[in-house]
Amino acid sequence: MRIGELLGAGRTADVYALDENWVLRRNRDGLDATHEWAVMSYLSAHGYPVPRLGPRDATTAPCDLVLRRLTGPTMLESLESGDLTASEVATVLAGLLAELHTVPARLSPQPEDRILHLDLHPGNVVLTPRGPVVTDWSDTAEGAPALDRAMTALILARTAVDPRARDAASACALALLNALVPHFSASGGMPAAHLAEAAARRTADATHGGAAHKRHDSNNSHDEDGGDVRARRKRSDSRDEADLFGRAVALVTEVM
After folding, report:
1. What is the pTM of this model?
2. Which residue in 35, 160, 164, 239 has the fewest CB atoms around it within 10 Å?
3. What are the backbone dihedrals phi and psi of residue 230, each rounded to the nearest 5 degrees, phi first?
4. Residue 145 in contact with residue 99, Cβ under 8 Å?
5. Residue 101 burial (10 A CB sphere; 0-12, 13-18, 19+)
6. Are 46 and 17 in contact (CB under 8 A)?
7. Angle between helices 167-186 and 226-255 (to 10 degrees)
8. Tell me: the pLDDT tens digits for 151-207?
9. What are phi and psi of 51, to 5 degrees?
10. CA-CA distances (angstroms) from residue 236 to 160, 179, 208, 228, 230?
């Protein structure tokens, strides 16, 4: 398999061209993608719009996924360009979550559990000529649909309250959050317990990734107090993320 140019980089993975029809998605931290592959295969069999999967055998690296190449803008790009309104994006996004939550859990014995994406935002939906396709299933789990709705709302709310975000990005996120909440309320809502769980999960993910990056920097600095510096940075990152998600929870609660 000849790996071509880097096409894009996400939170945890890079995407490379293989040919005009296929791409390679490689987890940057070596995380095993077998579970993700299994979930995507299961969803595809249920007719849910996920990228078509390429072959996976003993020669495939555990951190790799071969995927059908998608053409078209992401929903985020269409929102920010003005090609789609917040109301239009909210309708599609809420519909994709509602459709996902009709699929029974693959492993859980609990009858009310469903497949959850846990990172379904406009940047993870590609608007192809055949319709929207949901990408990046690295956070997928099984559980209550309300947690998935809460996670999507919090991701948007965090962007809206983040002082480092571009003004245009914050405005788009807030407009989309306001448009989404009525859809989510009609689907069962976002109870406080699920908002709190979503905030705790996302804070842990963000600070873990930040700590790894800081650790790499400190190892190259030859700082005799590097361990203490890393620990202080990690605590600071954790406090910052907890504060942002605390504000995000407050915003979602206010919008509801």
Report:
1. 0.85
2. 164
3. -60, -40
4. no
5. buried
6. no
7. 50
8. 999 999 999 999 998 999 999 999 999 999 999 999 999 999 999 999 999 888 876
9. -60, 145
10. 21, 33, 12, 12, 10
